[in-house]
Write a structure and sequence with these properties.
385 residues, alpha+beta, Glucose Permease (Domain IIA), eight-stranded antiparallel β-sheet, two-stranded antiparallel ribbon, binds zinc ion, transmembrane helix
Length: 385
């Protein structure tokens, strides 16, 4: 399919007080540049935008995206100037041409946001780091000519956004399991940065950017080379990096009137069904929680607690919780898990009247309704295939 990236049609920034304020903050970052000085607070600038997008469930309504896009009046992101938006579009466009799945576009954008705030630095500002990804000729980046007639120096090549993006993707695709692993881990494997965890802070914003540029492709997958984008099926990892933990009908919902303290949803699945990590992260809880002290037998409505359960910390203050497992979980505290990794099996331990998965999603510790939360990440709960 055609890819239409048209720099000349990039819209002039819409001027309003909020936008100006954000642009001023970005401006300060750029002046302070090397971009390192502003890293502590720039993700905060965008987090409000990302959250409001999620609240409006825009991502969920967008479908699963499309190949080919234009950067025009329809695409605006508060806080991004025209050059930043254009560079983002170039990164996504190169990923599409190379048939990299959408998860790769999110990882590439998060990396470039961290390295350059999507400004193309054509002159080295930090050692010999150049361009959107701050790649270094002294580390071998830029040595390969783009074509037989490419006589540019490595630094000149790396200052070309299309070239730099292609080289990023080439190395990304060589990382085993890259689309299931934590973004920080994969970006670090490509970039070898001194501050690997900083990439992760941009994951939500990078996801938003991909969705805006491609009408929701962060909700989709490209299963094999040449396929069009389609919605992720259970077990597949979306561009946003999420998958469904267990495929089944949703029984009791989030805080219904008769159960206002029910902080998650109950997915009705048979005993011993494998429970999958909804996204990559680090295990922060793996234990038995039952007022009887015994999770190896079925609980009941008079028993308090989650039973055998696991909790995972993802990026951006997000956590997920999986309760009532039939036996001790398969993962331990401190362990890094990839998206879709088996965590344990369904049971009825703790406060449970029959086998099911009680699944919670939390933002900064506060439980939120998993139905829109998962839909916004392209991995809706329920029985839909
Ligand atoms: Zn429940």
């Amino acid at each position: 399919m055609a890819i239409d990236v048209r720099p000349e049609t990039a819209a002039p920034p819409e001027q309003n007080p909020n936008r100006l304020k954000k642009l001023v903050i970005i401006g300060i970052c750029v002046i302070a540049a090397g971009s390192l000085l502003c890293l502590g607070f720039t993700p905060m600038v965008f987090s409000g935008i990302v959250q409001s997008m999620r609240d409006s469930a825009e991502n969920a309504q967008e479908g699963c995206g499309s190949l080919g896009f234009t950067v025009d009046d329809d695409v605006k992101i508060d806080g991004l100037a025209a050059d930043q938006l254009q560079n983002a579009a170039t990164i996504v466009g190169v990923g599409q041409k190379m048939q990299v799945p959408p998860r790769g576009w999110v990882i590439a954008l998060a990396t470039a946001l961290q390295e350059s705030l999507l400004h193309n630095y054509t002159v080295a500002t930090d050692h010999d780091s150049v361009g959107l990804f701050q790649q270094r000729p002294s580390s071998g980046w830029g040595n390969a000519p783009a074509t037989a007639t490419d006589t540019r120096t490595p630094a000149q090549r790396l200052a070309d956004p299309s070239y730099a993006s292609a080289k990023f993707y080439e190395k990304l695709l060589r990382q085993p399991g890259w689309n299931q692993r934590r973004l920080a881990e994969v970006a670090q494997a490509v970039q070898i940065s001194a501050f690997p965890e900083r990439y992760a802070r941009w994951e939500s914003f990078a996801t938003l950017l991909v969705n805006r540029l491609t009408k929701g492709a962060a909700n989709g997958v490209v299963a094999t080379q040449g396929d069009p984008i389609r919605c992720a099926t259970p077990g597949q990892i979306t561009g946003a990096g999420w998958t469904v933990p267990a495929l089944g009908q949703v029984g009791s919902g989030f805080r219904p009137p008769d159960r206002p303290s029910h902080q998650g949803v109950d997915i009705i699945v048979p005993r011993f069904t494998v429970i999958h990590a909804a996204s990559a992260g680090i295990v922060i809880t793996s234990k038995c929680n039952a007022s009887t002290g015994n999770c190896d037998v079925d609980g009941g409505i008079s028993v308090k607690g989650c039973g055998w359960y696991v909790e995972i910390a993802h990026t951006s203050g997000l956590t997920t919780r999986y309760c009532h497992m039939v036996e001790r979980p398969l993962v331990q505290v401190g362990q890094t898990v990839v998206a879709g990794q088996p965590l344990g099996r369904v049971g009825s331990s703790g406060n449970s009247s029959g086998p099911h998965l009680h699944f919670e999603t939390r933002v900064n510790g506060d439980a939120v309704n998993p139905i829109p939360f998962m839909a916004a990440r392209g991995a809706p709960l329920g029985t839909r295939q």
